[in-house]
Amino acid sequence: MTTTASGKTRVPAIDGWFTTGDEPALLASRCEACGTYVFPPGPTWCPNPACSSTAFDEVRLGRRGRVWSFTDARYQPPPPFRAPEPYEPFAIAAVELVAEQLVVLGQVVGDVGCDDLAVGDEVELVVDTLFEDDDHEYLVWKWKPVATGVDGEGRADG
Known about the structure:
This protein is mainly beta and 158 residues long. The chain has no helices and 10 strands. The strands form 2 sheets. Strands 6-7-8-10-9 form a 5-stranded mixed β-barrel. The chain has a 3-stranded antiparallel beta sheet with strand order 4-3-5, with no helix packed on it.
């Protein structure tokens, strides 16, 4: 946990799903028998229908992936989601983590909308504030596009 300049303590909005710090990561479970990844962590049994294992290791998922799909949240999600007032629509991306063969859904950073995204774009995991109260900033993971070439299309400058 860290403290902000205003004296608020920064804490995860959902404990045990991700780390914070300079290189945040999503936490997952990996089946010891077949290697299947599960997010969020904490399954009772392996979701792979060909595996009957109940033994898992806690692992950190890769921090970068590719946009698999995206949309925007034009409506205010219901509780327990906490949205700032007034409500501002935001982009949501399903991101494929290739090495883990897993797609993870998450918000996209606030200054990036659907017009700025394309399927296949590379993104990285960051931690950002979801909401605040008098004492805390509650953090969640979000996806942030990786810097691209000058043309904005991911092509090398030149």
